[in-house]
Every structure is written in structure tokens, then in C-alpha cells.
Amino acid sequence: MQDEVIVSVPAGEICPGSLLGIMGPSGCGKTTFLDVLSSSVNGLSVDGQVYIEEMGVNKSFLNYLPLLRKQVGFVHQDDSLFSMLTVQETLTLIASLKAVNSGLEVSQLSIESAVNDTIHLLGLAAVADSLVGVGGINDHVKKKSRPVKNRRVKGSSKSYQYRSSKGSVRISGGERKRLAIGCELVTCERSSTCSPLHNHHQLQSDSNEEAVRLLVADEPTSGLDSHQALRVVRVLKEVSRLRGVATVCTLHQPRSSIFELFDSLLLLTPLGRPAFYGPREAALPYFAALGYECPFLTNPAEFLIDLVSLDLDSREGLAASKKRVRGLVEAFEASQAPLKAVSIPLRSHARPSRWRSPLRLCVASVGRFGLLLRRALTQVLRDSAVNTARMAVYAALALLVGSVYGPATLVKAGFTAESVSNRVNVIANAAINVAMLSMIKTLQVYQRERVVVDRERPQGLYSAGKYLLAKACAELPGDALAAAVFGALLHRQAGLHCHMDRFVLVLSLLSGTCSSLGLALGALFKGDVALAAEPALMVMYVVVGSVGPAGSGGRCGR
Fold first, then answer.
1. Beta strands 148-152 and 159-163: pairing type?
2. pLDDT tens track for 2-52
3. Which of 6, 271, 507, 521 could bond 487 through an S-S bridge, CB–CB 3.0 to 4.6 Å?
4. Crossing angle of helices 500-524 and 528-544, rounded to 10°
């Protein structure tokens, strides 16, 4: 089977402090090109050279994947975040994980300073104490005005105005995009007096090797109105200028004011090859010289995308557009002089790696687990609506099952075949309900968080084992409590003769076991596959008697 070339771009450079815009119709390879730049090359065969400025030599792209992963920040099109954390808490946790991972002795003051500077830079000070929320629910969350309060970082002369709104307001789509950018940018220095916004030289020093040098954003304006889209791209431009970060972003339909913010432009075609690459202001004169002049009062970005798109309305139009696009690609390739390989401003690891004692590694591992556990507990405890609804469902099911197989059928009938059968039915319903509800809840929560975890793990912030252990420690007590409430109400309503504490304990252990099984299923399968496998697995357990009447009803029904 012959390999297919998805995208092929010319040699060029991405300079620190500049913003490169990538445009083109859908399916032209924009996201694939960004995946290559951000080292997300799983399943792809990549061929090319990388020139690292400080080393002055060309090396194979694949040899520098570990270096790219550490110093390239990728803002994904899907801006999923942990919904029950505030903006401040989200950035603080990411900065703390990066500090632990770097091995530097970073003080809490330095972390707070870095987070506050990032919030100020991204224009998120007004919502710093607002919950992130889940995308799509912001339209029907009523925003309430809150008193503005000043917050001063201890030991620093800078103060910030934050609007306190924790628990009542979710941030908007544009703010979520900017927060996603901040999660990639926030870093902290060894010194407690540094500031990533004002101390530019310290950012470039060797003490901050983990700082992002190349920021890649995949369609950061998707789903936003034109005003919010402009604000997001302005943030990217400001970040590039103030922090000396080379920034690359793809855009589908930029307004003219957004197009003007680009320092350089890469225009890709459906063939996976470029029709233009160079300074943004040189794009229109270049195509005008080829006979394609932008009409008056027309958005240049729209004109360029239309120019390289294929007309699928008719065969004649498709043939003519293919010929035009192929001609533009050939004209551009013929006009290009030989250039060096792509120059990405990354810092080489010429110095030997920092040695860390086993004790320090152990402390760092415990620190990572503590941060993950705190995040998981915050997610669980703040989700009061879900917790309340869950307890109400468990209570209603317990009362329903206990009423159907209540004392009238269990006590008055004595130890007859019918009463024994009813006792078995009570225990079977209890076991199956607790097992199903616990596993489904865990699967749904894990599938929402997995998108974020899959983005954070490649950065080396933590391992899958630590995340799953922290998630289990945060979720299992709540699962056991819900099962205990269910068991206590059912025992009282049905009038079972066994000890209530023994009945409640068995259901609590069953709930914890099935929640852990839900985590295992979520780790093994993605998306709808895990949700489809859960009922089949539970039915199999019921059939073989692992969950249900067989082997579990005899003692309690006496």
C-alpha cells in the first residue's frame, strides 16, 4: 500500500516574537502540520530537518521530539478544562505541576506571581475567581455583578483587581480559549522575585528551561463571535511580543482586522502544498502579479481562501478550480529560492541533566499526587447539583424497591417460598442498582476528564497511574456514602432481618468495586466504546452471579 503525502511545506523560519497564521480550506492539512510542529506525530511518518539556533547545526526532526515536547505548547481546538475549578485554581495547579516536574526549588510566592502575571496578560482578572464550567452551558447561566476586590501577592508590589464570583458564574467561550492559552504559557522561575511578564531576561535564562518557546494554536477562534475571536488573536499577538514566544495558529474565517495581526502567512491548498508563504503584507501583491487581484472592499482572508478552494458544485467548476490551484502551487514553488530548514527557536539541552536524589524524586512524586488529589476532590465536592441529584435517585430507588418487596411480604408471610423469593429479589435489585449506577457515573465523569488528561500527560506533568489513584481516592468515598444511604433506606423500608451495618457495608464495598471497574473501562476504551462495553460487562456479571442473587442473598435473607 502506497503512502499518501498529507502535507508538504517549504523550508522557512518561525522567529521569536512573531505570529504565523496558517490558512486554507478544510482538509488541506493545517491540523496535521500543527501536530508535526507540536511533536504529536503518532501514526505519522515525518521527514524533515530542524535547525536549532543556539547549536548552529541541522538535525533530523525525530531526534528532537523530546526537546519539542518540553518547549512547545499546543492549544487544542477542543478547550476542555476541569469545570469545577476557578480560573485562578486552574493556572495555579498547572504552574505547580510544572514546577514539581522541573526539579527546581520554586517557592509558592513565585507560583502565585507567575499565575497572577499570566491572568493579567490574558485579560482574565475580572473572572479569576469564576468557575470554568462546561462549554455550552454559559448561555443560560445568569451573570451577577460582584464587588471588585484588590488582591496583592505577598511580598510583591503588584496588585490585581479580581471580581469575586466563585460558584455563581461560568466563564465565556472567549475566556475559556484565553485560559487554555494560559495553561500552556504559565511557568515560574527559581527566584521568588521574578515575573514572567516583566522580567523578560529571566524568561530566557537557563533557569527556566521548561518555558514554552513555540506556541501552537489549532483554530483558537472556532465557536466565537468576531469580537471574541479578535480578542483571542490579540492575546496571541501580545504573548508573542512580550514573552518572545514564536506563535503559530490556524484560522478558518478570520476577519480583516485579525488578518492584519499576522506577521507572516502560510496559505495551504487542498493538495497539501502551499500557494504562498512569506510576510503577510506581501501576499496580496504576490497574487496580484499572478493575475488574481483582491477586489475592492473585500476581506483579504476570504479572498485568499476562495482562491485556493475547490468548486464542488459542478464538474466543470471542479476541473477549473483544480487547474487554478495546481497553477498557484507550481508558481509558488518555482518562485522559491533554496532556504535553510525550518528554524524553530528552541533551547538546546547542551548542559547535563540535573541529578535528583531518590528522596527528592519521592517528594516530587508525593507532591504530584497531592496536587492531583486536591483537584479531584474539588471537582467532586463542588458539584453540589450532581451530588444532590445522585442522593435523591438512590433514595427514591431504595424506597421504591422497599415498597414493592416491603414488610407486608417479608415479615407476615414468614419463611415461605414466596418470602424467600422476595428477599432474594430485594438483594438482587440492591446489588444490580448500586453496581450499575456507580459504574455509569464513574464512566461519564472519566470520559469528560480524559480529554484534558490526554493533553497534560504528554507534557510529563504526571503519569496515568497517579491520576487514576487520585481519582479513585476522591470518588470512592462519595460512592460508598451513596450506597450506604441506599442500603440503610432499603433495609428499613423492606424490613430485612439481617444486620443493617453488614448490609450497608456489603453495598458500599460493591459500589467502590464497580466504580474502580468503571475507571478501568474508561482507561481501556475511549468515548462511546466504554459506555457500550459497560452494560455488556454488567449483564455478564449478573448471569454468572458475581452481581445478583447467586451467592449473595442466602445469609442476608435469613
1. antiparallel
2. 556 666 777 777 788 889 999 988 888 788 888 777 766 655 566 666 655
3. 507
4. 140
Cα distance between residue 396 and residue 489, in whole Å: 9
Q: Amino acid identity, residue 194? A: C
CA–CA distance, 83 with 187 (Å, rounded to integer):
22
Distances (CA, A) of 13 to 68, 243, 373: 15, 18, 42
Give burial (CB, 10 Å; 0-12/13-18/19+) of 216.
Answer: buried
Q: Report CA 87 to chain centroid distance, whole Å.
A: 14
Select from 99, 94, 101, 121 the least CA-distant residue to 110: 99
Cβ(250)–Cβ(31) below 8 Å: yes
57 CB-contact burial (10 Å; exposed 0-12 / middle 13-18 / buried 19+):
exposed
Over residues 243-274, the pLDDT tens digits come to: 888 899 998 888 899 999 999 999 988 888 88
Angle between helical axes of 464-494 and 358-382 (0-180°, round to 10): 40
Q: Quickly count: other Cβ atoms within 10 Å of residue 384's Cβ.
A: 10
* Lowest model confidence (mean pLDDT) among 190-199, 309-318, 511-520: 190-199
* Residue 209 DSSP symbol: T
User: Which amino acid is residue 256, in one-letter code?
Assistant: S
